[in-house]
Amino acid sequence: MDESIVDERSLLLSRTPSASTKEEDVAFNILHDLGGLTRQTIPICLSFALQNAVQAISALIAGSVGSFELEVTSFGFMFFSCTGTMIGIGGATALDTLCAQVSTSHSAADNPKILGLLLQQCLLVLLGIFGLLIAPIWVFSGHIFIALGQQQDFAFATGKFMLFMLPAGILQVVGECLKKFLQVQGESNIVGLSTAVASTVGVLVTFVLVRWTKLRLWGVPCAFCIYQLLTVVALLCVIARKPAIRRTWYGSIFGIQKGISRLAFYAVTGILTIATEWWSFEILAMMAARLDPSSIGAQSILMSSDLLFTTVSLGISVASSHRIGGLLGAGKGLEARKAIATPYLLSFVIGGIEFFVIMLSRNGYGRLFTSDEGVIEKTAQVLPLMAGFQVLDLSNGGASGILRGAGKNHLSGVCNFLAYYGVGLTTAWFLCFQKHYGVFGLWAGIITGSGALLVLQSCCILSIRWRKLAKDVSRLHATSD
């Protein structure tokens, strides 16, 4: 009976015909599944959080030199995330779907190098998108910023910053693909450890280059490139030192075009899904810029906090996609249908903890960032909404992971667009500027959009015919072998 349970360590093991038991005989234990999903989620969250931490600490180090350096670094990292990072994180979700499904299929048992082929295809697609679309924007970003009304010295300094960041953008795409390649094979812990080591070294290098060399501001992008390079090197070392992982490495370009259109579809839909969500929050920030100084300060605190909390949502999303995709690849449609409850349960538990902690520190939360009493009071007023948003955001992360594991990435993207742009932002604008609720109205609007997203994604999940989908997935990967 234990053979029927797919966990983080069993993805490439024991794929004998006897493992394909009748689904009616599968004993599903949601508490056991919750424990497994939690163990997978934690190191994935760590990987995302550490990357955000490196950017935040780098901005603080730059700020110790001067306010101009802080402004350039902050704006540069924001532009980096809204363009380059969405290619790496969004595009690599194609591997969350395909590698998760393939890793437990009979195709991988017969030919484990299919996983390596998918990795190569993803690298080819994402690096092509980055080189053709993102790199030219970064090269001419200084002129673009001037056209958008920025001061000339700030615009050209930020444009130079983005030029220095070009190697980091390329390396991040490679690193995100390697992370997925390892995580889906049960190596989430070592990926988290590798990221932690690279992040620590990256922060130290940033401090040295900014404070102890003549590079000053330009030491930030140089150090960030070193951090991304260390991440890639560390992940490659893991692949080289793990015999089971090395078996899945595909060292040839022969046949790389087979099935690449399908991967490209998943990659593009993943990028657009991430973009619609992230850009909606940038639009929210631009709305807040029209408010009074206290509201702008409160919004900055809330957005900075949400940037940290959202790493948990990303972790649940990735772990859920691996779980559901693995079950479908193994032909266990009934168990996959039962397992969709686990991400919701985990989201509710973690969201409840976050809500309690935020509300407990509500009155003094703003003091962690500023001594301005107006900002502190405004932050305390809006914090309950941000706390409630976390529960919805975590649930949406789990729901999007379920859809991704089921190969329904496009549905998640459509739901994101309809919910955030059709409901969330329009409601936020109405409540903020028409009803004059200010920053409270902005967050009330985005909560409405997040609630709509949860309803839409849940309806999509409930409409899936899991047994049929499991058979289709198994047949698809058998024919693509």
From TrEMBL:
Presence of keyword Membrane: yes
Query: Where is it found, in Gene Ontology cellular component terms?
Result: membrane
Keyword rRNA-binding applies: no
Q: Name one Pfam family in it.
A: MatE
Looking up InterPro entries in the UniProt record yields: MATE_fam
Which Gene Ontology molecular function entries are recorded, alphabetically? antiporter activity; xenobiotic transmembrane transporter activity
Q: This protein's superkingdom?
A: Eukaryota
Report the transmembrane regions from the record: 123-148, 154-178, 190-212, 218-239, 260-281, 301-319, 340-360, 380-399, 411-431, 437-464
Keyword annotations of the record? Membrane, Transmembrane, Transmembrane helix
Q: Which family does it belong to?
A: Belongs to the multi antimicrobial extrusion (MATE) (TC 2.A.66.1) family.
Instruction: Write down what this protein is called.
Output: MATE family multidrug resistance protein
Q: What is the lineage of its organism?
A: Eukaryota, Fungi, Dikarya, Ascomycota, Pezizomycotina
